[in-house]
Specification:
three-stranded antiparallel beta sheet, four-stranded antiparallel beta sheet, alpha+beta
């Protein structure tokens, strides 16, 4: 809980006595890095998404590009923190007649996880394409080798068949020369 606010949205009657100017943490309420208004004056961020939920109180958000806005009382802000842009988050104390309740939380998602993905995905695509091409070449080589083997088996079978036919023909020719039976001859029975 912050105290009541003054006209300039700073804590009414605020004094820096006993506080660490520029890094005021650990009290019942904190100025953080604010000089007049509690909060975080201009500072840089790089490489993450920030989702801020202001459950109670208000946040004045500005950036180095001139954008400004106030959100609070249940609002949600989504900010992409790139490089080269500063921003500030200040907690204006709007209530002047009582305490100013301030409750917020932030979720940060590191873009450093996203950036490598942008680099890794194309590399993975190239690796997958190369692997697919290598597999296709291997399949093609296997198919060619199988075709060569089939052709060789067919050639060997044909050669074996031709050799067998030649051997059979030669055998038949040889038998026909050795045979006592010639055309026109007669068969006689041996005498007893």
């Amino acid at each position: 809980m912050y105290p009541a606010g003054a006209d300039d949205m700073s804590p009414a009657g605020f004094s820096w006595n006993g506080r660490n100017r520029g890094a005021d943490f650990g009290g019942t309420w904190n100025m953080y890095h604010g000089e007049k208004v509690p909060g975080f004056p201009r500072h840089p961020h790089r490489g993450f998404e920030t989702i801020t939920v202001a459950r109670h109180g208000h946040v004045d958000h500005t950036d180095g590009l001139g954008n400004a806005g106030r959100f609070g009382e249940g609002d949600v802000q989504w900010m992409t923190a790139g490089a080269g842009i500063t921003h500030s988050e200040m907690f204006p104390l709007l209530k002047q007649d009582g305490e100013n309740r301030m409750e917020l939380f932030q979720v940060r998602v590191m873009l450093l996880v996203v950036v490598p993905v942008v680099v890794v995905v194309p590399v993975l695509v190239v690796v997958v394409v190369v692997v697919v091409l290598v597999v296709l070449v291997m399949v093609l080589v296997v198919v060619v080798v199988m075709l060569v083997v089939v052709v060789l088996v067919v050639v060997v079978v044909l050669v074996v068949v031709v050799v067998l036919v030649v051997v059979l023909v030669l055998h038949l020719l040889t038998l026909s020369r050795l045979s006592p039976l010639r055309s026109g001859s007669t068969c006689r029975r041996p005498r007893r």
